[in-house]
Amino acid sequence: MDVYEAVASRRAVRGFTGRPVPRQTLERVLSAAARAPSGSNIQPWHTYVLTGAPLAELKKRAGERLASGDPWDEPEYEQYPPALKSPYRERRSAFGEQRYGALGIAREDLEARQRAASANWDCFGAPAALFCYIDREMGSPQWADVGMYLQTVMLLLRAEGLHSCPQMAWAKFRRTVAEILSPPDGLILFCGMSIGFEDVTVGDLRVARAPLGETVTFVDGR
Ligand SMILES: Cc1cc2nc3c(=O)[nH]c(=O)nc-3n(C[C@H](O)[C@H](O)[C@H](O)COP(=O)(O)O)c2cc1C
């Protein structure tokens, strides 16, 4: 698979089969992803890979929390600016319409949206997940490094025939994740990522992108 194909075929997949992902495959992907760039090569990512009984236990505990109405953990970072301005606000709401529209859920049906979103905490059925932490002392450039690393992971997963869904949703249940992973103090959970083979019966959501001219400016004297 060439890089264009990996980029074009990667998308946030929200339905996985239970087919296990071999440990050697995950090791191959994560070893290769370690080549991702980072400022001064500090490699600020801390990755935990969860499969089998520990992942099942995490999903169970998260499901119990959801069912009991236990509120989300207080945020350790702002997932979005409190007042998202234009054009980001419109893009976000267009995404919501595409995502929930594809499931036949109306814009105003918040309960159905929440029900669909709750699949996050079952990793959309995935048999593997990773959790990516960053040191609390790191700043925006290092958070960007982590983003590059995670995209590298997701593209390499495509080369292995696997799909993924990055999930900030797990930050809302970060204490439950920490119960299973026992990360050292001083790390912030940036996101989880569900990993597995796509359940093709779930539907192929292709979220549109802004036209090139909206996000890219060529300055070439023409
Ligand atoms: C850092 C990050 C966090 C995300 N968190 C979630 C999440 O919690 N749940 C979810 O369903 N999708 C999540 N997504 C997926 C985005 O919604 C998705 O990437 C975006 O809508 C573009 O769609 P595409 O990746 O399918 O092209 C996240 C993506 C990123 C990059």
Which geometry do the CA atoms define?
globular
| CATH homologous superfamily placement | NADH Oxidase
What is the count of helical runs?
A: 8
Q: Supply Rg.
A: 18 Å
Following the backbone from N to C, one meets helices and strands in this order, namely HHEHHHEHEHEH
* Proportion of residues in extended strands: 5-15%
**CATH class type:** Alpha Beta
Low-confidence runs: none
Write the CATH architecture name: 3-Layer(aba) Sandwich
Major β-sheet, in short?
Answer: 4 strands, antiparallel
SSE topology sketch:
Elements: H1 3-9, H2 23-33, E1 45-51, H3 52-68, H4 88-102, H5 110-117, E2 128-135, H6 140-159, E3 163-167, H7 174-181, E4 187-196, H8 212-215
Antiparallel strand pairs: 1-2, 2-4, 3-4
Helix pairs in contact: 1-6, 2-6, 3-7
Bound molecules: flavin mononucleotide (FMN).
What do these coordinates show?
The protein has eight helices and four strands; from the N terminus they run ααβαααβαβαβα. It is of the alpha+beta class and 222 residues long. The protein has one domain: NADH Oxidase. Strands 1-2-4-3 form a four-stranded antiparallel sheet, with helices on both faces. α3 packs antiparallel against α7. The longest helix has 20 residues, at 140-159. The chain starts with a helix and ends in a 7-residue tail after the last helix. The structure holds flavin mononucleotide.
